[in-house]
Inverse folding.
């Protein structure tokens, strides 16, 4: 079973500025001319921030689609060779960055810090949770698995509890889950239980 992700875009008349927290091992800052893989998944942030200029990056009524100060990179791995470009990120200091090592040490605290980074950018917020942020040794579901990096599923769940409780949240995007990588279904059940538990905790407290 292949993994699949999809997001629909509103019409220009319904467009509202949003902030985004992306929970992913990959920074996805490579452009259409720099990646070695050619995989669009490795270019998501590049399209949002206008690091590449094409029809997809100009899908909305403004370009770039997302201002630097409206983005938080959460749980990424600095040593990921395909998508992490320090020189690009250093040139964009307004993009908030919280690496996987920091999230492992204090998942809820780092999630609160991520929200604090977006306080001045009032408005709607979207959370993108890519399962590749979780160490594949703990949860072997990522379409592009990574071993020995990222965070535990439990840590991801603690962070999600904070993000799901944010009053600015309007949508969450769950991506890259490939159930065929673990045919017993136990890993998928843990994933659903973790996300469901975070959502339930948010509803109970809200």
């Amino acid at each position: 079973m292949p993994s699949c992700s999809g997001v629909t875009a509103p019409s220009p008349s319904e467009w509202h500025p949003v902030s985004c927290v992306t929970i992913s091992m990959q920074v996805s800052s490579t452009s259409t001319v720099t990646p070695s893989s050619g995989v669009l998944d490795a270019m998501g942030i590049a399209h949002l921030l206008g690091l590449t200029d094409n029809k997809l990056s100009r899908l909305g009524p403004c370009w770039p689609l997302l201002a630097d100060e409206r983005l938080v990179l959460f749980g990424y791995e600095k040593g990921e060779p395909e998508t992490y470009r320090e020189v690009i990120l250093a040139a964009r200091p307004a993009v908030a960055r919280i690496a996987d090592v920091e999230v492992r040490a204090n998942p809820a605290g780092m999630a609160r810090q991520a929200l604090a980074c977006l306080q001045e950018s009032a408005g709607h917020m979207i959370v993108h949770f890519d399962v590749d942020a979780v160490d594949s040794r703990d949860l072997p579901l990522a379409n592009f698995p990574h071993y020995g990096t990222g965070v535990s599923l439990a840590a991801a769940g603690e962070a999600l509890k904070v993000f799901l409780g944010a009053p600015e949240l309007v949508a969450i995007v769950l991506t890259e889950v490939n159930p065929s990588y673990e045919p017993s279904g136990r890993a998928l059940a843990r994933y659903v239980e973790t996300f469901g538990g975070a959502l339930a905790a948010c509803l109970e407290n809200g």
In short: The chain has one domain: 16-205. The longest helix spans residues 186-205. The chain has six helices and five strands. Helices lie at 44-49, 86-90, 100-105, 107-117, 153-164, 186-205.
